[in-house]
Design goal:
253 residues, alpha/beta, 6-stranded parallel sheet, 11 helices, 6 strands, globular, disordered C terminus
């Protein structure tokens, strides 16, 4: 039986911590669309153009918690709203209201289900075969549900999601706290772990946290996207994790 080899870029690491949305499951587009549904009424009322679900999503909200993302997106457009209260209904009256609108829009969209990126599942299988434990992190409170629906939860030894972050009082990305907690649960020092991220804030968090390898995932396949991930600290950037799991001489899936 042929032995399983860890991909070259991950050799030397003892564990891998992966982001969820956009890295493991194909849900980043749902998040981006939900942010547009939540923010566009506020922007229209202020006489501004619609939210850019590509550029502005990556710049302001990708990888952040709902509340942090809402605050960053509004501030980025020069809109100053009161923080409000967590019990506020969806709307444009406060940062919490915008975050609630995003949550409602995402729940509606995710009800149809999400799928795993095939290349990501392939990499998880390779790492499992090589006995390299993996954990997932996410700023979303829906990560566990999404991973279960996509069939990926059995491949992950640990999960630190938005609910756990709130319970433990962990700050969001670009602070490395989520990744550090996942590494702690795996029992491996950050320097011996790899981080896999598609968000600039997440890549920066991996670099700030002193992780041994930071892999950026740029599914836009654009030079600008890859350059931005490298500028924030990625050691290597791929368009799909299947590239890391390809056998020598084999075309990536």
């Amino acid at each position: 039986m042929r032995s399983v080899e860890v991909p070259e870029v991950l050799r030397g690491v003892r564990a891998v911590v992966l982001d969820t949305d956009g890295v493991l499951v194909d849900s980043a587009g749902l998040h981006a669309a939900a942010w547009r549904q939540a923010l566009d009424p506020c922007l229209t009322a202020a006489g501004q153009p619609p939210f850019d679900a590509d550029v502005e999503y990556r710049r302001w909200v990708d990888g952040r918690s709902r509340l942090d993302g809402a605050a960053a997106a509004l501030t980025g457009r020069g809109l100053r709203l009161p923080l409000g209260d967590v019990r506020e209904p969806p709307g444009c009256g406060s940062v919490h209201a915008v975050a609630a609108a995003k949550e409602a829009a995402f729940v509606r969209a995710a009800a149809a289900g999400v799928t795993a990126w095939p290349g990501s599942l392939r990499l998880l299988r390779v790492l499992a075969g090589a006995r390299v434990p993996c954990a997932a992190v996410s700023a979303s409170r829906h990560a566990s549900e999404l991973l279960e629906r996509a069939g990926l939860r059995p491949w992950l030894a640990e999960l630190v999601d938005g609910a756990e972050a709130a319970r433990l009082g962990l700050p969001g990305k670009p602070d490395p706290a989520l990744f550090a907690e996942a590494a702690r649960r795996l029992g491996v020092p950050a320097a011996d772990c790899a981080v896999v991220e598609d968000a600039r804030a997440g890549v920066e968090a991996g670099r700030r946290g002193g992780f041994g390898v930071v892999v950026g995932v740029d599914r836009s396949a654009s030079p600008a996207g890859a350059a931005a991930l490298r500028a924030h600290g990625a050691d290597v950037v791929v368009t799909d994790l299947g590239e890391l799991a390809a056998e020598p001489g084999e075309e990536p899936p």
